[in-house]
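In the previous lecture we treated proteins in isolation. Real proteins rarely work alone, and many bind small molecules. This record shows how such a complex is specified: first the sequence, then the SMILES for zinc ion.
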Amino acid sequence: MRIGINCGHTVSGQPGCGAVGIIDESKETREVGNRLMTILKNAGHTVVNCTNDYAKSTSENLAEIVRMANAQPLDLFVSIHFNSGGGKGSEVYTFDGRRHAEAVAACDKLHALGFVNRGVKDGSHLYVIHRTIAKSMLVEVCFVDTQSDVDLYHELGADKVAAAIAAAITGK
Ligand SMILES: [Zn+2]
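The predicted 3D structure, ligand included, written as tokens:
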């Protein structure tokens, strides 16, 4: 498969960076996303890194991510995020809430690691979902500002989280 992977936002502290709670979304999306890219490459897939580290604004960051994703044909585009706002667990956004096998599997496999399964949700309003040409999904691994989610994430480590998402993408 040809898979585009986006490690969430710009790097920590920059315009367009991710949420900061007990852990820092910008940092953890790279911990998980970079491992995910390695796993997929080692499995023989073509991986396009669609991560944008520096931008003048959130909108510039989003536009750059989509430009990188749409620069070549992809079978799947996956954006890795961590949630904030005090909820619990994992959720996956797709265009129109379509229950792609990869999206359902991402929820199931993160749930199998112990995260609450918040399900596949309508991400039509999300720029990287509605502007990418390829089939796309945005994975919110867990909440950066919920202690029990952070504890579980630390206990598992980014490797296991990345492996779960890789398995969901490849159907293995
Ligand atoms: Zn995010």
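Summary for your notes: The chain has one domain: 2-170. The chain has a mean pLDDT of 98.
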